[in-house]
Amino acid sequence: MSAASLKIYCPCLNPNSLPPPPNLPSSSYSYHEIHDLYFCEECDSIRCNRCVSVEVSGYYCPNCLFEVPSASVRGEKNRCARNCFLCPSCKNTLIVVPSDPPESADGRISSINTLGDPPFFLYCSHCRWDSAEVGITFEKPTSLANQLQKYEDSAPDNLEFERLKEHFEPFIRASSASSSVTHHLHTAQHIHSNPITAAASDALSRDVPGVSKYNPLSRSRVGRDKANRDEMPEYRSRMDVSLTGSDSANVENLLRIESPEEIATLEQRWINSWTSSVLTNDLKPLRIPLHSKKSKRCPTCRHILIKPEQKPQSVRFKIKISATSYLPLMGISLPFLNNPTTAAYTAKRSIRPGAMWEEDKNSTPNNPVMVGGRTYPFVLSFTNPMYDPIQIRLNVLRSPLPTITTTAPTDELGTAPQPEKRRPPFAITLPTFTFSVAAFAEAWEYDDEDGDGMIEDEYADLVDDRRHASASSRTAPGRGGKTKTVGVLEKKANTTYIGGEVVIGKEAKGDIKFLMMVTFTYRNDTVDDMDIGEEDGDGDGSPVRTTNPQSSSLANANKQPEIRTFSYYVVVDLGKIAQKSGEGSVDERR
Amino acid sequence: MQQPIYYSRNEYIETDTGNKVSRKAIIAGPQNIILGGKTIISNGAIIRGDLRRTGSGHTVVISLGRYCLIGEGCIMRPPYKTYRGNFNYYPMKVGDHVHIGAGTVVEAATIGNNVEIGKNCVIGKFCIIKDCAKIEDNTILPPNTVVPALAIFRGSPGRFVEELSESTPERVEAMTKQYYNRFVPMQDQ
């Protein structure tokens, strides 16, 4: 049973783009949990991890958790220079263990040395690999990286890398003067490079003098303007790669192996930057690659959205502009799924009179499911994070085009992605009127913490409310009176609960996913709050100057700057429609 | 809005600080265990407060923070090692807002705040899990593993998969508080 979920569409720098159909697997990259999103106040728009620009603000080792200054990051080639090693066999972290102490005459272990006896070696507590097998032992249990330095310095990949660096050194020096001039121009055009390239080039330009930031626009021009790139001498590698991987030696080894475990898997060898032996016995411990802390910026206006604290293991941020403090927090629940006893009351059979028997077979009390040909209620909750009340309006999108006709009987969205299989649709009913969500106040937070006694009663009320939802929804304004469960169900503190209904077609199957445009109006704090009383009240029916629904973000353009409107798309996933026992399983296997 | 999670009123003992401890959980050596308040210990959990450091006097063996959840059938056991020829148990410290899924065995040394641990995991001896980390279901963390802050670990042996979003502290805090508030005794019918 999949849980119902809500995800928000990030337009990723293209404010007029329409969200992709939610049923396509590829669309999942466009929809994000609200907790993963940022909000740029300057641009008044949602930002996600795929569109922000990322800068590295510090490095640390994920094992010893030490912060590594960027100078030694370069010197140690992004790896921990302390005692942290990865097991070459299973990628677990290795521990240093002493050799077994020599046994004294009476058979008891007499260890005088507190640290243990040399030689020390690295040991994997997961797969029991140990470095003595490959001939790596240590005189003392500290600063292992230094002791290993001599092995590493003579490794062929290291020598080749040094040689490459030497080769490019003169070129870097020569171009450093010119690139630093163009540097400022390029940062402004930085917008369209992807975050990873940006982070890498930022780090590179900081650490390596003279390397300008990567810029797809400038690259071609630099190449044309400066002829000195052509003047570079041709690089010759230390040794010919085709000769290093001596197949004859490998064949010799392969002839002698007795079990497949003696050959290292591709995964184990993948991390090596150089052609290495295929034998497991030749795998060397790896220094742990460093992790980084990142700060994030709005790609358009370069305002900082995330700025972490310097300390590697701190989870606090100097700047954190998360979407959760700007957009209402939405929740969804399907009452009948969690509370099977109420399912009998709330879900009413609509299409097939004799469906009851089959439903009972499918939806056991322990694992209730949605089946075709029935109507199910669902509850959306909106929690306002802002200190001002907001008005929200929901529009369910029926088709790729945002033509808003709430009374349309079918939802075409379900059929679009899979044309080869005619998929019977489902229909969503949600209130179309504007409803209000009260402002956030700290007092409610405290209530939540201390008022334990009340909580039970409140929940009991809620369940009760949903069971006999007719009372509250009939009083709700708008066209919600058609069905019992649609409308404003309850308002509690800064949360408003909205009831909706889904009618599932008789032969429907697959996921119930639909797109919904959420438009909310709020008061902008920056101007004087002269006429709060006008809008403050229970604004259920208050008209909203809806902006062009095609644009995801629009500040109100007419002469009332204190009221602003923000729209965004949400994909609602109510879960899977249960397969009918007979023909459904056949179709699934097809 | 989430549905309440009901339990039978006589199955759990509620303390003055709001801890809810199942009568079907095995709490060994309760004098060596500290619960921070509003912590739930589910049915069948085993907490070994009796495995204490040798020596006289009062010691804290396992301390849990506020709003923690010890899932059904979890085993919380302090880590041990032989140091200089002496076998000893070492205390385990768990921060606030930590959820541990059902069937997980924990022998960690330190678990930070806002940590989510999935079902059927094994957290090896002397593991250190920093704040806001997440251990997915069925993960095996070998002894001495360090999980950095805001990291997701998965697999056997558990390895770094991904970083969590920056708003994880708030999300987990809200989730654990909500869970505690949803965990209510069944109304008498």
If you had to describe this structure to a student in words, what would you say it looks like?
The complex is a heterodimer of chains A (590) and B (189). Chain A is of the alpha+beta class and 590 residues long. Chain A is built from 16 helices and 23 strands. Chain A folds into 2 domains: 5-34 and 329-589, no CATH class; 38-99 and 113-236 and 253-321, no CATH class. In chain A, strands 1, 2, 16, 18, 21, 22 and 23 form a 7-stranded antiparallel β-sheet that branches. Chain B has one domain (5-184): Hexapeptide repeat proteins (UDP N-Acetylglucosamine Acyltransferase, domain 1, 3 Solenoid). In chain B, 8% of the residues lie in helices and 36% in strands. Chain B has one helix at 168-182, and strands at 5-7, 12-14, 20-22, 26-28, 33-35, 40-41, 46-48, 62-64, 69-70, 75-76, 80-83, 86-89, 92-94, 99-100, 105-106, 110-111, 116-117, 122-123, 128-129, 134-135, 140-141, 146-147, 151-154, 159-163, 183-185.
* Major sheet details of chain A: 7 strands, antiparallel
Instruction: Give the overall silhouette of chain B.
Output: globular
* Record field, number of beta strands of chain B: 25
Largest interchain contact: A-B, 50 and 39 residues
Tell me the number of helical segments of chain A per DSSP (H or I, 4 or more residues long).
16
Mean pLDDT of chain A: 69
How large is the share of residues in beta strands of chain A?
A: 15-25%
User: How much helical structure, as a percent, in the residues of chain B?
Assistant: under 10%
Domains of chain A, number: 2
* Beta-strand residue percentage of chain B: 35-45%
Note the gap between the termini of chain B: 23 Å
Which CATH architecture of chain B would you pick? Answer: 3 Solenoid
**What is the helical fraction of chain A, as a range of percent?**
25-40%
Protein name (chain B): Dynactin subunit P25
Organism (chain B): Thelephora ganbajun
